[in-house]
Amino acid sequence: MNTTDLHLFDCNCMLGKFENPNFLTESTYGAYARWGAAPSSFTKAKELMDEMDHYGIEEALIYHASAKEKPDRAGNQMLLENVKGTKRLHVCWVLAATMTSKIKNYDRFVKDMLSSGVEAVRFFPHDHNFELDQVEEFVRILEEHRVPLMIDWGVSMPHCYGVVDWDATESLVKEHDNLPVILAFAASHSDTILYPMLEKYSNLIVDWSSFWRYRALEAICKLYGPEHAIFGSNAPFYYPGGAITDIIYSEISQSERKLVAGDNLRRLTGGVKK
Fold first, then answer.
1. Is residue 205 part of a domain?
2. Domain count along the chain
């Protein structure tokens, strides 16, 4: 199958590089360092787009490494500067409780954020050491504007199960049922917890870059609907080919395949109320 038929829209890419060479070992992404294979990085937008071209990815929702390493506005502003003049790269800001606590007017902040070109928000609650209930009021404003929220627990290894606060995650999804919540890196072996949540909450979506269960995409499409899954690569930490192959060869319909590959994310970003 030609990937151009899928119009791939990647929900999970990182631009830039970490300033601290030890950052990987100090975060939940330390699994990569333990494997002895520190990831490369895309320091410029063109480098990322060249990689996208190689895999036939049309668009990508991206965040900046500096914003993950140090939760402040500098990395987010750097991202806006780096993507100027590009139409294929969509901006996702990384925010944390230390940042939202300093915002005096959440509604004005979100409106200004959206007018600057931001299309989604990403939380790293474990790596940035905050509880989801600390950002409750800010999340409420995101919901009013229907800004897609990605919650990234940074977990790819089964031994990291304890990192994910499933109760807090479910509470947020339940209390904000008009907010699209994309769950990233909650461990690939979490189906016994995740599936009941997908059955109950139509606003919960799974980033496919880290959900590695046999025939899981078929199961989710059949039981809960293809709207619950979106393509993500987690580049540059992973090669995009794995997630793309899963979408291409899963036994689902072509219409379902296209939804997961990109149309679901286009619907979410297109539904933002500025």
1. yes
2. 1
Q: Is residue 81 part of a domain?
A: yes
Mean pLDDT by 10 residues, the chain (274 residues): 87 90 55 46 93 96 93 91 95 97 96 97 93 97 98 65 83 98 78 92 93 87 97 89 92 97 98 95
Query: What is the per-residue pLDDT for 24?
Result: 60
Residue 222 is part of which domain span?
7-270
pTM above 0.85, yes or no: yes
For β-strands 57-64 and 229-230, DSSP reports them as: unpaired
CATH number of the domain that 228 lies in?
Answer: 3.20.20.140
Give the list of residues 6+ apart from residue 67 with CB closer than 8 angstroms, or none.
74, 75, 76, 78, 79, 93, 94
- C-alpha span between 262 and 240 (Å, rounded): 14
The CA-atom distances, in angstroms, between 48 and each of 15, 38, 177, 238, 263 are 7, 17, 34, 13, 21
130: three-class secondary structure by DSSP: coil
Tell me the per-residue pLDDT of 82-128, one tens digit each, with 9 for 90 and over. Answer: 999 999 999 999 999 999 999 999 999 999 999 999 999 999 998 89
Q: Which helix (H) or strand (E) covers residue 119, if one does?
A: strand 118-123
Q: Helical H runs in the chain?
A: 23-26, 30-34, 45-55, 65-69, 73-82, 97-100, 106-115, 136-144, 166-175, 191-200, 216-223, 241-249, 254-258, 264-270
Residue 1 lies in a domain: no
Give the helix/strand (H/E) hosting 154. Answer: strand 149-155
Residue 184: inside a domain: yes
